[in-house]
Amino acid sequence: MELTNYLYLAVILFALGATTVLLRRNAIVVFMGIELMLNATNLALVTFARMHGDITGQVLAFFVMVVAAAEVVVGLAIIVTIFRARRSASVDDANLLKS
Amino acid sequence: MTVSGGETVLFWVIAPLMVIAASGLLVVRRAVHAAVCVVFVMISLAVLYVAQEAPFLGAVQVVVYTGAVMMLFLFVLMLVGVDSADSLTETIRGQRWIGLLLGLGLAVVLCGVVASATFRQPVGLAEANAVTNPVALARVLMEHYVVAMEVVGILLVTAALAGLVLTHRRRLGAKPSQKALAEAKVAELPTGRTLTPLPAPGVYAQHNAMDAPALDPEGRPIEKSVSRVLRIRGQERSATELLTAEETLVRRELERPDDPVPSVGPASGTDGDGGGAR
């Protein structure tokens, strides 16, 4: 098996995450799509580290994980705040700036 | 470096399952089911990391993603309401097809990039991992990425503070005292509020569960003796049905005088227990 198969898997997962962000309305599910995209990137980074015999790719994946954890905290806090104010977690309902 | 046969089998077993679980994110209606799909994808990714000579990242993946991040997701789902199903009405016409087309296009373009790129012969991490994977990672991290580590630490502290500040709710009025609460309850008496606890559910000869209403002195069922949730769900039992069932049972027993009564033993002779219980 070629190592590029891992890259194809990462690409498919990334595309599925992006499609989730485009299609779903529930803000939490949209957020899960973003997490899926970050995970797919990590898989590609780990595969690249193995291809080149250089462990720096894994260090980069590690940093992505840490930043993703911070991002989740802030994002979910924003979702909770919006839900408290508008009683809805749908991304369609947050249209305060619409004329 | 060559990929072992075991890893090939592992990949071809796990990868299709991961793709199926990830597509579940697109079709599943409830957010909780989507969360379960994502948890499956993340655990499978941890397995793939371990297979790809990154055991430390595999452990971190399980601890950070499935342990912390997805639990946080489930907590927020609990706050927002588990039942909040997605509305499928389109606010932008044709958004579904445009989104699917864009996602498919992204997959095709990225696959094309991977297919057209030339990769050199894979090296493998046997040499880099000679001092075990976590030690090798720590060396790179502490030699070349110390500043980045510090910045990420600051980022984490900032994010924790942001989470606190964003979800903090300032109290607008004074905290109500016990006296004020009692007065408010009494003031609500004319609107039908009761001061005493609600009546307990009914106890019947054959039935004493939460869903049976109690009877008032005139034999009418008391509505408030059954939990509001059960009433709204329509899972309340009707008192007349329970009473009719009991009556028919008693009548059937009385109409068979020649049958030996099963509950009274032949040795006891007296009808103290058996007769009294009925």
From TrEMBL, chain A:
> What keywords are annotated for this sequence in UniProt?
Cell membrane, Membrane, NAD, Quinone, Translocase, Transmembrane, Transmembrane helix, Transport
What is the name attached to this protein's record? NADH-quinone oxidoreductase subunit K
Q: Which HAMAP family match?
A: NDH1_NuoK
TM segments? 6-23, 28-48, 60-83
Q: What is the organism of origin for this protein?
A: Isoptericola chiayiensis
> How does this protein sit in the membrane?
Multi-pass membrane protein
Class of enzymatic activity (EC top level): translocase
- Where do the coiled-coil regions begin and end? none
Q: How does it assemble?
A: NDH-1 is composed of 14 different subunits. Subunits NuoA, H, J, K, L, M, N constitute the membrane sector of the complex.
Q: What is its main location?
A: membrane
Functional note: NDH-1 shuttles electrons from NADH, via FMN and iron-sulfur (Fe-S) centers, to quinones in the respiratory chain. The immediate electron acceptor for the enzyme in this species is believed to be a menaquinone. Couples the redox reaction to proton translocation (for every two electrons transferred, four hydrogen ions are translocated across the cytoplasmic membrane), and thus conserves the redox energy in a proton gradient.
Under Enzyme Commission nomenclature, its number is: 7.1.1.-
Compartment annotation: Cell membrane; Membrane
Reaction(s) catalysed by this chain's protein: a quinone + NADH + 5 H(+)(in) = a quinol + NAD(+) + 4 H(+)(out)
Name a Pfam family for this protein.
Oxidored_q2
Report which superkingdom the organism of origin falls in. Bacteria
Protein family per UniProt:
Belongs to the complex I subunit 4L family.
From TrEMBL, chain B:
Cited Pfam families? Oxidored_q3
Composition skew (Basic and acidic residues), residue ranges: 248-259
Where's it found, cell-wise? Cell membrane
Q: What is its EC number?
A: 7.1.1.-
Please tell me whether the keyword rRNA processing is annotated for this protein: no
Which UniProt keywords are present, listed alphabetically?
Cell membrane, Membrane, NAD, Quinone, Transmembrane, Transmembrane helix
**Topology within the bilayer:** Multi-pass membrane protein
Bilayer-crossing regions: 6-27, 34-51, 63-85, 97-119, 145-166
Entries under Gene3D superfamilies matching the protein: NADH-ubiquinone/plastoquinone oxidoreductase chain 6, subunit NuoJ (1.20.120.1200)
Q: What top-tier enzyme class does this entry carry?
A: translocase
Q: Which reaction does it catalyse?
A: a quinone + NADH + 5 H(+)(in) = a quinol + NAD(+) + 4 H(+)(out)
Principal location class: membrane
Report the domain of life of the source organism. Answer: Bacteria
Please name the InterPro entries in this protein's record.
Answer: NADH_UbQ/plastoQ_OxRdtase_su6 (IPR001457), Nuo/plastoQ_OxRdtase_6_NuoJ (IPR042106)
Identify the stretch(es) annotated as Disordered. 243-278
Q: What does this protein do?
A: NDH-1 shuttles electrons from NADH, via FMN and iron-sulfur (Fe-S) centers, to quinones in the respiratory chain. Couples the redox reaction to proton translocation (for every two electrons transferred, four hydrogen ions are translocated across the cytoplasmic membrane), and thus conserves the redox energy in a proton gradient.
Q: Give the similarity note.
A: Belongs to the complex I subunit 6 family.
Protein name in UniProt: NADH-quinone oxidoreductase subunit J
Organism name: Isoptericola chiayiensis
